[in-house]
Amino acid sequence: MAHEYTALSGDDDHPKPDVPRSPSIGQRHKLILALVASNVVLLACLLALGMHQSTLVRWRGAKPLYSPVQDIITYESVLFPKPQEKSRYHGPPTDEVDQAWIDLYDLGMSAIPKSQAARLPNRTEPFSAGSDTYLVSLTVFHNLHCLNMIRKSLWPERYSQAHRYDVVHGIGGDYIFDHLDHCVNSLRLALTCAADITPHIWRWNEKSQQSTGRSNVVHTCKNWDAIHEWAERTRITTHYNYTIHVLDDLVFPDDP
Ligand SMILES: *[C@@H]1O[C@H](CO)[C@@H](O)[C@H](O)[C@H]1NC(C)=O
Ligand SMILES: *[C@@H]1O[C@H](CO)[C@@H](O)[C@H](O)[C@H]1NC(C)=O
Questions:
Q1: How many CB atoms neighbour CB 226 within 10 A?
Q2: Ligand 1: which residue has its CA nearest to atom 14?
Q3: What is the Å distance from ligand 1's center to 61 Cα?
Q4: Atom 10 in ligand 2: residue holding the nearest Cα
Q5: Ligand positioned closest to the Cα atom of 121
Q6: What is the pLDDT of residues 78-119, one digit of tens each?
Q7: What does pTM read for this prediction?
Q8: How does pLDDT run across 119-136, given as a tens digit for each residue?
Q9: Taking every pair of C-alpha atoms in the chain, what is the biggest distance, in angstroms?
Q10: What is the spatial distance between Cα 246 and Cα 124, in angstroms, rounded to a whole number?
Q11: Which positions ≥6 away from 180 have C-beta within 8 Å?
Q12: Which ligand is nearest to the CA of 241?
């Protein structure tokens, strides 16, 4: 019954000549076919567009591992400044420059809910017994701390030797932890891992009568403000006691 053609009200056997008839079965089939065809064409266009856009960044290889900030990441175009343009992070060092660096990264540890900790590729420690939050810190903040260490080492007259060589005791016998060397290596890993693939260009310089490399081009960047806001929002403001071992019930593949 549902599939049978039933006349609509007003669709009688003797229509007035000037009143348009409802479409016949054949006409309806044609109409449906036309709709299906136009949808197929639209779908093909969208696919073609999608394929064209995916040539910009084509995802191949390992899928990204879970990060608690993955859902807030958006991308934006950022014009990098000319090399001679000074920022508030440039030297020579002042209290204001130091504060700018502190504001950039010094947010401590973040507390994430247990549901997010459970999705991490690696187990992390609960903040405290019964708190149901877990400790993390995004790599980028450690790397900015490292860059600041290296910056300080460039100005030994202002910063003490402690900023240049941080010898951490108790990591096995004569082993000396060279903080600066560790930092250089961390940044090497970060730079090759994230690999900014924006091309620098060369332009003719009339004054010097030679072509010179230019870095003031637009880069595609993760939205830094969103990441920084996340770290501010989730930062731990109460004391974390490193010497208390809190046990929990999360299970990870690399558990012993
Ligand atoms: C994190 O997970 C990886 C992959 O399972 C493993 O190789 C690595 O040792 C883990 N790191 C820590 C600190 O547990
Ligand atoms: C951290 O926990 C240990 C062990 O319970 C305790 O002795 C110590 O006083 C705690 N430290 C702080 C600063 O609360």
A1: 14
A2: 122
A3: 19
A4: 241
A5: 1
A6: 999 999 999 999 999 999 999 999 999 999 999 999 999 999
A7: 0.76
A8: 999 999 999 998 899 999
A9: 106
A10: 11
A11: 149, 150, 153, 164, 165
A12: 2
